[in-house]
């Protein structure tokens, strides 16, 4: 247990209370803090990002192109998340050296979907599997963009 931390906190409090400001008037004590101008923050938020800076917003994903009746006629369905995003995720493994793409929220015939992905995307049969516990489809390698565009093309 580190015994230095509680002592340092006590000394910090003591130094705080033994300042030159009077104890009975907390307004004078707090007036020593620097005044922050809100206008500076709002101007910075309105400026466009400089070149070389990344913005963290992604383009919105279009809504499903098929009606619920058309999706019901298929042998499998990939449901959207509550925020209407596609349930496709990247997982970095082995210290960031290996990438696995997960497709979740699959209802229906998962084996048929797996075969369709193998045919459409040209992924080797040894690089794709159905997780026996979670029933998610796992793609080995950097196939995130291809799988996402394939799901959008299929109307999910």
Automatic annotation (TrEMBL):
Entry's Gene Ontology cellular component terms: mitochondrial large ribosomal subunit
Main subcellular localisation: mitochondrion
Any one GO MF annotation of this record: structural constituent of ribosome
One Pfam family per UniProt: Img2
A Gene Ontology BP annotation from the UniProt entry: translation
Ribosomal protein in keyword set: yes
Subcellular location: Mitochondrion
Coiled coil regions, renumbered to chain: none
Keywords: Mitochondrion, Ribonucleoprotein, Ribosomal protein
Hydrolase found in the keyword field: no
Positions of region (Disordered): 43-69
Range of residues in the leader sequence: none
Compositional bias ranges of the Polar residues kind: 43-56
Family (UniProt): Belongs to the mitochondrion-specific ribosomal protein mL49 family.
Protein name from the UniProt record: Large ribosomal subunit protein mL49
Organism: Tolypocladium capitatum
UniProt lineage: Eukaryota, Fungi, Dikarya, Ascomycota, Pezizomycotina
